[in-house]
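Appendix B. Raw example, untouched.
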Amino acid sequence: YDTGLVCGGTLEVFIEPVLPIPVLYLFGAGHVAYNTFKVARAAGFDVVIVDDRESYANRERFPDAREVVADDFDQACARLTPNENSYVVIVTRGHRDDMRVLRWAVTTPARYIGMIGSRRKTIAIYKELESQGVDAALFERVNAPVGLEIGAVTPEEIAVAIVAELIAFRRN
């Protein structure tokens, strides 16, 4: 068997790490989520789509998704099990749904949690969740607003900014 290359009396061993494919749990299936899905897939992420609207969260719209979940956000979250190699991005259509998903996300071991929205919206959601008993320290690992600050405006540009931040976390 081959033990490596012997050069000048030294044995050289080549090691190539095989890392698991990162899984992105993408909450929302609207324009920003659709474009984030496309960019994330191109960047090597497996993507799980979650939305409460079957007309948006379906295999026709997301044929290459690892999984597509069309269900109430609370019920969907109860069935999902992100691990330390998982990424959670929250881009639902409203503050209430973002807050419901964030309440769950901060209790998971996910490597990355990001939520779309203004700083004002984010502070309001944090305060509301704190009033419901969620520990404020849990929000320290949330990236909000999600994505690198590149001046993105369109859904396509926002998707690039989000996935660029995911790549930065993946590569440290």
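End of appendix B.
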